[in-house]
TrEMBL record:
GO molecular function annotation: cysteine-type endopeptidase inhibitor activity
Pfam families linked to this entry: Inhibitor_I42
Residues in Proteinase inhibitor I42 chagasin domain copies: 30-115, 135-215
Domain of life: Bacteria
Organism in which the protein naturally occurs: Mesotoga prima MesG1.Ag.4.2
Keyword Membrane listed: no
Protein name from the UniProt record: Chagasin family peptidase inhibitor I42
Entry-linked Gene3D superfamilies: 2.60.40.2020
């Protein structure tokens, strides 16, 4: 109990002094009918390939896979890409997982994620970016999101990878006495192992399930 209290006060002190890092979101935007390109490096000779997953269905479509080898040397990495279009307005989450086809998704060894906010009409081209937060081992960092529990919607997250763990969660309630006023939720994490990890937040009603999510947030972390 004493160790737990010490850890709690240590984290509280870090946040109070402003020493915790606020993670930057991996977010993109585009318009309906825009063409989007997403690229990432892979090494097919190892058997590990990137696989793409998008939710919800219908916002982004026509995922065309392409490859670009930049070297003739055996075993050299190449660039894998996807071309997609925005079919309708909405928020979409793209998750990339690196695994061997014969081992399956459960044996993924690396992850990336990004969100795409589709609004308005357009016929241009967008290069989607994957933003990564680089931290050192032991770093304390936070994510703060606004939610309105009175509507039934709350933020729920999953961590892909083993490099980080949650240390604390704090809810700041609005004190304006306004009915239905939103609150702010702050999660505190710590980098506990080297490598890549991804935190994916989904905003949904618990009884409706994560498939009904109406908003997404994605944070990529590289621990060195």
């Amino acid at each position: 109990m004493k160790k737990a209290l010490t850890a709690f006060f240590y984290i509280a002190l870090i946040i109070t002094l402003g020493l915790a890092i606020e993670l930057k979101e991996s977010a993109n935007s585009m318009s309906v009918n825009d063409l989007a390109i997403l690229e990432i490096q892979e090494n097919p000779s190892t058997g590990y390939l990137w696989h793409i997953f998008a939710e919800p269905t219908g916002v982004l479509r026509n995922f065309l896979e392409e490859h670009n080898t930049r070297s003739i040397m055996p075993g050299a990495p190449s660039v894998k890409g996807w071309i997609m279009t925005a079919a309708k307005e909405g928020k979409a989450l793209i998750t990339l997982k690196l695994f061997r086809q014969w081992e399956g998704e459960k044996h993924s060894v690396d992850f990336r994620a990004l969100t795409v906010d589709v609004t308005g009409q357009g016929k241009g081209q967008v290069d989607l970016k994957i933003l990564t937060n680089e931290v050192t081992l032991g770093t304390i960092f936070t994510v703060t999101l606004e939610e309105n529990a009175s509507t039934g919607y709350t933020w729920q997250y999953v961590v892909l990878g083993d490099g980080i763990m949650e240390k604390n969660k704090e809810i700041s309630v609005d004190k304006s006495d306004k009915v239905g006023a939103p609150s702010k939720v702050t999660w505190t994490f710590q980098a506990v192992d080297e490598g890549y990890s991804t935190i994916i937040f989904r905003y949904f009603r618990s009884w409706e399930g994560k498939e009904s999510a109406v908003d997404y947030k994605a944070y990529n972390i590289s621990v060195k």
